[in-house]
Amino acid sequence: LAAEALARAHENLTMILQKAPFGVVIIDKQRGIRYANPAVCTMAGVERMEDIVGRQCAEYLCPAQQNECPILDKRQTMDNSERILRRHDGREIPILKTVTEININGEDLLLETLVDITERKQVEEELRQVNCYLEEATARANDLAMQAEMANIAKSQFLASMSHEIRTPMNGIIGMTGLLLDTELTDEQREYVQIVQSSGDSLLALINDILDFSKIEAGKLDLEAIDFDIRDVLEDFGPMMAMRANEKGLEFICAAHPDVPSYLKGDPGRLRQILTNLAGNAIKFTESGEVAVHVELDAKTDDEVVLRFSVRDTGIGIPADKIGVLFDKFTQVDASTTRKYGGTGLGLAISKQLAEMMGGTIGVVSKEGRGSEFWFTTRLA
């Protein structure tokens, strides 16, 4: 019975080794191959086990490491490393080889398992190439980004310089037209001079927008931190806007909530610039009804306040799908708006930047044909 059990165990072990997807080799201390399963024969490119049994292991299993066997030459007890297997046709393939010492019937032998890692190596090489490509692409992208940044800085510096140079003679033209309007002119001459003055004012406003935007992009726009009275700002800003609104037959409201503290510290000029831009747009895009400017206290601590400014109108409104691009530079709702009302689309972009520089944010609530409410917050001492 013991002999039968031993025979069955031998048959089972032989069947397992025959079916194993990895190579199994037994080698003697003279480096002779005693046993090799079919997987080893497949790796080695031979048809029968007899074609490899009896050969030296260095002929097939690790020719690149001949006479450097970790077990036999370096006296290690175990080895697990990547090696090169040389096939019968001379082609070499990468393998993962594990070696351990065994004793069979009193004889010391080496048991080796071999795994073909050709596909893994190919994947590793592909990943290496992809990584190299990504590194090169990243380097190129960084280089292009640096070039773009340098070009952007150069552009902003150019715009700032040119805007300043153009603004000086424009102020002279506007000043001279103002003096000319104070002289005796015929009705036709006065009309022509007023057109020149109006065009000059529009061009100067555009130049100022470009100058501000170029300074913001170049990081050279500094905010003041001076004491001011918020109600003085509104009293200075309100009548000017009311006059423009009255010319279109609109009602104009400008008021601060009683909770808003009067004496603050910040940049009243830039605050007035945002208000003028938003209120000017509201008047421009409103044909009837009213434009209302309100200031409310949004938050307060011992050291600072957050004010919320809102500009509400009863104008043409904004389509929902256009609201997301309103604060992008050089953006108008559509071409017909630009043709009818004019403008470059810089004003809202500048207002957004200024609001953020003053520690706040900006937004809009609108429905097409039912008016809009532009609002922004600012943090002031």
Query: How many β-strands, per DSSP?
Result: 12
Parts with pLDDT < 50 across at least 5 consecutive residues? 333-343
The amount of beta strand, in percent, is 15-25%
User: Helix share of residues?
Assistant: 40-55%
Largest sheet: 5 strands, antiparallel
Radius of gyration: 42 Å
Distance between the termini: 99 Å
What is the succession of H and E elements? HEEHHEEEHHEHEEHEEHHEE
Backbone shape: elongated
Q: Count the helices. How many?
A: 9
Class computed from helices, strands and strand pairing: alpha+beta
Spatial arrangement of strands, main beta sheet: 2-1-5-4-3
Mean pLDDT rating:
83
How is this structure best described in words?
The termini are far apart. The model is unreliable at 333-343 (pLDDT under 50). A hairpin with a 5-residue loop joins strand 1 (23-27) and strand 2. The radius of gyration is 42 Å and the shape is elongated. With 381 residues, it is an alpha+beta fold. It has a five-stranded antiparallel β-sheet. The chain is built from nine helices and twelve strands. 23% of the residues are buried. It has helices at residues 2-19, 38-44, 57-60, 118-181, 187-217, 230-247, 268-284, 335-341, 346-357; strands at 23-27, 33-36, 78-86, 92-104, 107-116, 226-229, 251-256, 263-266, 290-300, 305-313, 362-366, 372-380.
Short description:
Helices cover 47% and strands 23% of the residues. By secondary structure, it is of the alpha+beta class.
